[in-house]
Amino acid sequence: MTDLQDAPTTSEATTRPRVLVVGPRARARGGIGSVQDVLERHLPAHAELGLVATHSDGPDRLRTMVVGTLAAARRIRRERPDVVHLHVSQRASVLRKGVVAAVARRAGVPAVLHLHGSQFLDWFDDLPRPARGVVRTLLRPHRLVVLSEALCVPYRDRLGVPADRVVALPNPVEWPSAPTRRPEGPVTALFLGRFGARKGIYDLVTACSLLAPAHRERLRVVAAGDGEVEQVREAVAAAGVGDVVEVADWLGPDERDELLRRAQLLVLPSSHEGLPMAVLEAMAFGVAPVVTPVGGLPEVVHDGVNGAVVPVGDPAALARTLGELIDDDERRHALGRRARTDVEGYAAPRWAERLAAVWAAPL
Description:
The chain is of the alpha/beta class and 363 residues long. It is 43% helix and 16% strand. The protein folds into 2 domains: 4-172 and 347-360, Glycogen Phosphorylase B (Rossmann fold, 3-Layer(aba) Sandwich); 187-345, 3-Layer(aba) Sandwich (Rossmann fold), CATH 3.40.50. It starts with 17 loop residues before the first strand and ends with a helix.
């Protein structure tokens, strides 16, 4: 595994590499779109960027996939960049980026594979053995970037990448000014992400139904996202927690940041994760996270130190934790303050330097 703390920064490099970045449009819904947004704003100081979108929101999604994949392959052959950086999730994203990676290899262009998919390992393990071999052959990166130290070995072993070519690079976060919030009064908790069982939204709804009346009276949950929006609204109505949970559609960055400035808790009881941007962004605003120990989260959120950790799929435990945090104003406030301190190392400028070091390193 490559230790980026010891890697040279681009200030030590003599030339800026030409990097073709292939992935979602900046600010597309989801964590990868947020990462791409940070990349496009901070990496031009370190590299000459070319951008090809293979994912977008809305009705032109399929067209973007096809046209973008073909465009990436064409630009690799014609422009011969120094590095191709591929954002990869899972399923179809693997196949699209695998085709681009194969084109890069044929053209003699190093490929950096940036794996974001929270369920990639489960997806890969469920494939028939011949299909797993096809995925390994398609991807074969020169450098593999994963979201946490804990994921280095599993991804290395699945994809057959040498240990010295695997890099742990947690997601970045834009650093906001510290909001001023008072610990007393109503407690606002947020759920930000794609609505569905994987993110634990239904466990959160059930947990709210299990809260004591005094806790329900004080708590206000704003759940914002896309996906199963109507199903979540139906679940809220069925559980009788409409007085506690407000279900909103996907929020733009400004609306999200306004909520984060006044929130005190971020609740994300997921069953699978990589390293969710919502958690890092909330912590940067001094919001205490309540999460499950999945993906890269145990490396960031420490129970009772800078947040709370609850078991996966346990609404009763989630309800108890929420009740304790609602009751203890000072503890809740202290967790948020520590969360902001602890996540400062994930600030975007430092992340950009580390990613630029990956691009500049011999491939």
